[in-house]
Design a protein that fits this description.
Blueprint lengths: L4 E5 L4 H12 L3 E6 L11 E5 L5 H11 L3 E4 L6 H6 L1 H22 L2 E7 L21 H14 L4 E7 L2 E2 L8 H9 L5 E4 L3 E2 L2 E2 H13 L4 E4 L5 E2 H12 L6 E4 L19 H6 L7 H17 L5
Parallel strand pairs: 1-2, 1-4, 2-3, 4-5, 5-6, 6-11, 7-10, 8-13
Antiparallel strand pairs: 9-12
Bound molecules: NADP nicotinamide-adenine-dinucleotide phosphate (NAP).
């Protein structure tokens, strides 16, 4: 029996790459789309394609040809400040391309899963639940919310999976854990915010949850996150777990940041409902950092892959 085919956009991002690996482990055929950053993933059931998701003609051809049972859409313009200065590009990439993919899924693919963000919420009070009303304060959040609306409007078994400060090792933009390791391993100081809170999502946990949602054909909104903490608390935990000098981590404050786009102060997500629904075990923070340590040790052994 041939396993279903998943078309996965954003395979060259950390969550995309981890999701591809977990899907392949489960026996799925995966077609992964990258844009500017080619990745290497050797597996007999994996095909890598280069495509620009903002080119509707090209994407239509691809989906028609592959007719995947599932589309997992993780590609986006993820740089929050760039989204603020390049609004048209952000809208085209995060909203219009998602709407086009959701329309194609309605015709050719019974299941559509969209990776979204805590930044769809205003980020004043935190602890946002899956069905709380979104109200983004920056253009990245707004353009991702456009993608959410397109997803739930599709005629598919759809899922909007929200994550927050995704971290781990693998391809994609530098995430905070990777940045910390890079600096701390060289004995360099790092500033970390004490007054901004998120619920950091370990990429490998996200990939497991995404796979379960696909396997069980679940529909709706999901929050896949870890425990709420400040960037400073996160940095201290990373340093302690990986054996770096904690005194290199210095307290920083939101008021001193030179961001272009506004940032939520507390965009932490409440994941109680999702945890109850899924069998995937969400990590407590002690397990999450133990897993990070194992991943870090694997990176040290094979640095090129990460
Ligand atoms: N970073 C976080 O903490 C966080 C939190 C919540 C949700 N997310 C979501 O996670 C996903 C990955 O983002 P990221 O933050 O990890 O950033 P990232 O590393 O920059 O990943 C962005 C991905 O989108 C692809 N992409 C961008 N423009 C494209 C285009 N025009 N055509 C095809 N592919 C395109 C990139 O491909 P190339 O690299 O090959 O160009 C890359 O695979 C996004 O959906 C983002 O909203 C991220």
């Amino acid at each position: 029996m041939t396993m279903p085919t998943v078309l996965l956009t954003g395979v060259s991002s950390l969550p995309g790459y981890q999701t591809a690996i977990h899907l392949l482990r489960l026996g799925y055929q995966v077609v992964g789309i990258y844009f500017k950053n080619k990745i290497r993933l050797d597996h007999q059931n994996f095909k890598l394609k280069k495509a620009d998701i903002t080119n509707p003609g090209l994407i239509t051809k691809l989906v028609k040809k592959i007719q995947p049972e599932v589309i997992v859409h993780m590609a986006a313009l993820g740089n929050v400040d760039l989204c603020e200065t390049e609004k048209k590009l952000a809208w085209r990439t995060n909203t219009l391309a998602s709407a086009h993919l959701a329309r194609l899924a309605s015709r050719y693919s019974p299941q559509f899963l969209y990776l979204s963000t805590d930044f769809v919420f205003p980020g004043k009070d935190g602890n946002y639940r899956e069905l709380d009303p979104p109200n983004p304060i920056n253009y990245y959040g707004l353009s991702k919310l456009g993608g959410e609306i397109a997803t739930l409007s599709s005629n598919t078994t759809w899922a909007v999976v929200r994550a927050s400060s995704i971290y781990g090792f693998g391809p994609g933009r530098k995430n905070f854990a990777k940045f910390l390791v890079e600096r701390l391993s060289q004995g360099l100081k790092v500033g970390a915010l004490v007054d901004q809170y998120t619920t950091p999502t370990q990429a490998s946990l996200l990939a497991k949850a995404v796979c379960e949602i696909i396997e069980r054909k679940l529909c709706g909104f999901f929050h896949v996150v870890g425990e709420r903490m400040s960037r400073y608390e996160f940095a201290i935990k990373v340093a302690s777990t990986l054996g770096f000098d904690r005194s290199l981590i210095q307290k920083a404050y939101v008021k001193d940041m030179k961001w272009v786009a506004k940032r939520p102060i507390d965009s932490s997500l409440n994941c109680e409902r999702t945890r109850k629904l899924l069998k995937t075990k969400f990590y407590s923070s002690s397990i999450a950092f133990r897993v990070l340590k194992e991943e870090y040790q694997a990176v040290i052994k094979t640095p090129k892959a990460n």
